[in-house]
Each structure stands twice: as C-alpha cells, then as structure tokens.
Amino acid sequence: MPPRARDKKKPKPVPRPLAQAxxxxxxxxxxxxxxxxxxxxxxxxxxxxxxxxxxxxxxAIAVLHDFDGWRITVVWDGRGEAMSVEHPFKxxxxxxxxxxxxxxxxxxxxxxAQNCAARDDLVVxxxxxGIRVFIQAQGARWLSTGELWRWVDEANAxxxxxxxxPR
Length: 167
Fold this sequence. Notes:
By secondary structure, the protein is an alpha/beta fold. It is 46% helix and 16% strand.
C-alpha cells in the first residue's frame, strides 16, 4: 500500500436501518410439495391424512425457526373461501397460510415473493420449477427440497451438539 493511502481515513460506512446479519431471514415453504419429498411424511399423509402430515412437517422444520432464528411461512393449498393464517406455536414469526379456494398455494407463494420488501433475505423451498423461476426473477433464493431437508438435519445435529456440550 502506498504511504499516502495509509494516512487517509477510511470513510465511515453508510448506516443502514438494520444490519443485514441482524435482519430476520424469511423461509417460505411449499407445504404439500415438501411432504411429498420426504418418504416418511408421504407415508404419514397416506396412512393418517393431511392433518397428521402437516403437523409432522411443521414439527420437522421448527428447528429452523427455534434454533436458527428464521421466520417461517408454510403455504398450503385451499381451505375455505378466504385466505387464513394460523400460528401453530403461537409465534407471529412462524405461520401457516391456507390459500382460499380457487387460488393455489403456488400463486400465494408467488404473491408473497413479489411483495416481500427484503427479497435478498427471502428463501423459498419447493420442487416446483415454475415457482423457482418466478422467485429467482424476483431476487429471492430458491432452495430445493433436498437442500431444505439437509439443512433441517444439520440444524438438528447442531442442537444435539449444543445440548451435549459440557458446561
């Protein structure tokens, strides 16, 4: 580095409303798509029905919310005339959205991706190639079902290590 360059003060970074590392990341999950990608959930769906399979998926991905601090929205296909939102763990940062009859979960996911203010913090997990192309065009990140399940497995392993760690 030339001597004069060392003497110059570095410009202060422009303050941002909230540092990117501190902003909550948002994961949108294509619910039934994820159920069909995991053999044990698919068997649960066939053997015990949709409520069982939905509950098992929610329990499985909760580690990403609870341990990794992600905001999670699971989107499900049609239930009733109006869109509805449930919070299975009573936390506003973990929601299940049910599309209204006549509107698919895919359309809801696309609308959420389009309206999300911080698209660089948005990840959508689905195997649907149409959604993948759309959300990537919106500046969001796509995650395959296999990548999501690897992430869940890694987060669970991290929890087990944290619990086993001597104090």
